[in-house]
Write a structure and sequence with these properties.
Layout (H helix, E strand, L loop, with lengths): L21 E13 L3 E2 L1 H7 L20 E2 L5 E3 L2 E11 L3 E13 H29 L4 E2 L6 E10 L8 H16 L8 H8 L2 E2 L6 E4 L3 E5 L4 H33 L20 H20 L8 H13 L2 H51 L1
Parallel strand pairs: 8-11
Antiparallel strand pairs: 1-6, 1-8, 2-7, 3-5, 4-5, 5-6, 9-10, 10-11
Helix pairs in contact: 2-3, 3-4, 5-6, 5-7, 5-8, 6-8
């Protein structure tokens, strides 16, 4: 390790970075909003509501259910220049934005600036999405600005010209990296630092990525292809959280408010044509399952162990599996409620039919007796 190296005799391929050394790189700020039930792409195209652009699709993503890419103007706020590199619409009612902010600074100075930059662009993202929302309003089904919002950021550093190994870079700058990923200006405890730095992977031996729940650190200058994985995971997290919250409200309303079943529903055969609260929950269950499955299966990484590992580590850090399990439990509850409700309704229909048959037999007997 570097701490055991004699500084006067540095072996080939290993150099110590000076404290306070400046690095070049980028901050990527991802924001995703849920603004409605559905965005109709055909309406946007026909009416020319946005300036659309073609974006090459990563080979690791399926080529159907492709989001709609559009141009977001380059801007400048509070002397912080940014480039919008990702701006997409998803037909299930989501908008995704990403701001790229170049830097040329030491990690210590960057740590102090990042908190302010994050707050500035948190407000800026609201303004930009509001402008987009107003433009595409005619193409949104059940529009609402906005139902939920999620964010994630990446600190990308170009490797130093000095030939330093990734492990030695982490040894020297691990504490600063951990603080960057938690938006803390002070150093974290050894336990927190170790927890963050353990989620590390690399490919060539000269680069590495560190994953955390709110942010990631990339020490590599070939990073662009991985950005789509972070965007996709952020979208998944938003939709899972939205559905989880939505299901909570739906189930709570179901338990608190007595079922107002229309009288037509009690009529056999005819009653099936009428919508009831429980049948709406059942249809909602199907809609949610379709969207969740689409998001979960949008990435295909068969045969690529590295990107599979990248996505798996990101998936774990964002607790996507836990959110998925929470939704599945609530969907199972809805299915059980629907099953019980249908069973009770079928029993009621059978009783009604039995009563009708008895009445018909009674009427027939009376008529026979009269004759």
């Amino acid at each position: 390790m570097l701490k055991n190296v004699d500084n006067n005799k540095v072996p080939f391929g290993i150099e110590r970075l000076e404290l306070g050394e400046k690095f070049t790189g980028n901050i990527f700020l991802f924001y995703v909003f849920d603004i409605g039930d559905e965005i109709v792409f055909d309406v946007i195209r026909k009416k020319g509501l946005l300036s659309l652009r073609e974006t090459p699709r990563s080979p690791y993503f399926k080529n159907y259910h492709i989001p709609l890419s559009f141009d977001l103007p380059v801007g400048e706020i509070a002397d912080v220049k940014h480039i919008s590199v990702i701006s997409k619409l998803y037909n299930f009612g989501a908008i995704s934005l990403c701001y790229q902010i170049p830097f040329d600074d030491s990690l210590d100075d960057l740590k102090g600036q990042l908190v302010d930059i994050y707050e500035i662009y948190n407000r800026k993202s609201d303004e930009d999405v509001k402008a987009v929302f107003n433009k595409i309003y005619p193409a949104i089904e059940k529009p609402q600005f906005y139902q939920m919002k999620n964010s994630y950021y990446i600190v990308q550093v170009n490797p130093s010209q000095k030939n330093i190994a990734p492990e030695d870079f982490k040894e020297q700058y691990g504490s600063k990296i951990a603080s960057l990923l938690r938006l803390e200006t002070q150093s974290l405890s050894d336990y927190q630092e170790a927890d963050i730095l353990d989620y590390t992977t690399g490919y060539y031996g000269k680069d590495f990525m560190i994953f955390d729940s709110e942010a990631s650190f990339i020490y590599d200058d070939e990073y662009f292809e991985t950005l789509e994985f972070f965007e996709s995971a952020n979208i998944q997290l938003l939709e899972l959280q939205y559905f989880d919250k939505f299901l909570d409200k739906s189930l709570e309303a179901f338990y608190l408010k007595p079922l107002a079943i229309p009288w037509q529903a009690y009529i056999p055969i005819v009653g099936r044509k009428f919508s009831t609260p429980i049948s709406k929950l059942a249809r909602m269950r199907v809609d949610i399952s379709v969207i969740v499955e689409r998001l979960d299966s949008s990435i295909k990484m068969v045969g690529d162990a590295y990107y599979s590992q990248v996505y798996s580590m990101l998936y774990e850090k964002l607790s996507l599996q836990s959110w998925q399990e929470s939704i599945n439990k609530k969907l199972d509850i809805i299915e059980d409620l629907y099953t019980v409700y249908q069973h009770q309704l079928e029993l009621l229909h059978e009783e009604i039919l039995t009563i009708v048959i008895i009445l018909l037999i009674a009427v027939e007997a009376v008529l026979a007796f009269v004759k």
